Predict the 3D structure of the following.
Amino acid sequence: MTIYIDVVLLENLIMNFIILLATGLILKEEIKKVRLLLSSLLGAIYSVVSYMSILEIYSSMILKIILSIVIIYIAFNPQNMKKMWKDLLIFYLTSFVFGGAAFAFIYIIKPQEILMKNGLFLGTYPLKTIILGAIIAFIVIITAFTVVKSKITKKDMFCEVSILLNGKRIKTTAMLDTGNMLKEPITNTPVMVVEHTLLYECIPKEILNHLDELLGGDFNNIPENIKEEYMAKLKFIPFSSLGKQNGMLLGIRADSVTIKEEDTEKKQENIIIGMYNKSLTKRGEYRALIGIEQSCK
């Protein structure tokens, strides 16, 4: 079987470019096609040299790792070691998935003449077979990483919460906000931010419908009986998020809050409910925010 070096070079150039392109998209890197092309060319040249067995050293594992690092630096120019190792890991994972998909495609089409030498698949099948296999592998890689990432994100970010307040229970979906370090300043009690419309069964509407007035010191719309019962319970909580700097939330201590993440439950009795008088999301994916201290993690 006759193998042409220029075909080996071109095939590996195409495959390397697609693998690096997929890696860049997964990492959300700024894609510079010239850098990807140069990096792919370096990998393709290595493949040719390895195939020709010019030097025994070219088959060593150490050289392959060094080559991978150089390829990553040329393609993405990571600014620190942590970023470089992350890029390298995704590059290897992408390469493994790509190799598996490409191998499966070659197995399905069953070309008449094919061999493996020094880790390279070689054959007389048309170049379009390689290109088609590379495109299929690219779609598989991007789809797989997108699905896995979306599932991990949902798993890590959302949980179910059950709030017991004034003897009544409400349930909702909360988002884990790792930047939420909100605490009531006097007692240092952690605060869970909840949309005020969820609390109508637990707190009088005269309070919930006049949150802004209460925060401004206006109690004229609050009946005397409600004022006597709730004024001592309400907490004023400063915050600098939720689209506002130096804002204030009105809060009230919950009887308990139960947080459920997958098969794990965590019950807390020392949480203040911060009443937020707007919607946290446009689509209502979640209606509460919890901090990392309140989660099961």
In short: Residues 127-157 form the longest helix (31 residues). The radius of gyration is 29 Å.
